[in-house]
Amino acid sequence: MIGYALRRLGQAIPLLVGVSLIAFGLMHLAPGGPLAVYTLNPTIQAQDIERIKVIFGLDQPVHIQYVKWATGIFSGNWGYTFFGGRPVLDVILERLPATLILMGCALSVAIVLGLAIGVLGAVRRYSVFDTLATTGALFALSFPTFWFGLMAIYVFAIHLRWLPSGGMYEFGEEGDPLSLLRHLVLPTLVLALVLTATWSRYARSAFLEVMQQDFMRTARAKGLTERARLFRHAFPNAAKPLVALLGVELPFLFSGALVTETIFAWPGMGRLFVDALNMKEYPVLMGLMMFTAMFVIVSNLLADLAVAALDPRVRLR
Fold it and tell me: Which pLDDT band, with edges at 50, 70 and 90, does 311 fall under?
């Protein structure tokens, strides 16, 4: 197991270096370059631009700039924002709790509902429930997240007035758990909708495959109840592809959080990315890309290790 973990870690490091190269290259290829907020401002003179380049070290060769930036990333110095001069890492960490709350709630809802729908669809194959669940999953996967968000705001916030349309707290109620819960309902359900459809389809396929195996027929022949066969024999074997799916779904969860946080004005990392893009805060954008890449790579690594722990054959590949 330790050898497998070291091999997977050795594969993750070059991937992270590749992401850093892409992020650094995108910054320099963007219109105006890394100083777009200054070069695109007609009130700033050319000599001021040159002085700013010296301050940020952009007068040096590109490879030296990359080495300094990458060294800073892995040593904790992620640079400073153009507006306010705040450390980029501090700005990201301020928004991280809001994103983790939203992602955690959406993922929990998706896993619980997706597993329940998928398992019931597999047990009641070709039933009315299975047909409706399959149709609903295809419907949820066919429409973009922002459409569901806008419809949810129109129905529940504007028409029915049951829930707030955006934000994290009501003004003056910062820190109130009930206010947080009311603001969390709509973005959680919208973000969890597509995830639930994905989990239900994968869970149905995984359980159908396991339930057709010889050991399940043997368990039935021994007189075990359907509940015992399902939870004692089918679930442990069907869990392996679902654990792997958890690592694969994280990039989608981040991208979905970006759209959802923008629609519902949720003060998380996704909203920070959009604001930084509009303000051409390239240090923040680069920091967000690296932070997201690290999170996704580590999560996929943990998912692979979990699959290897469940299935020892994976370690031999």
Answer: low
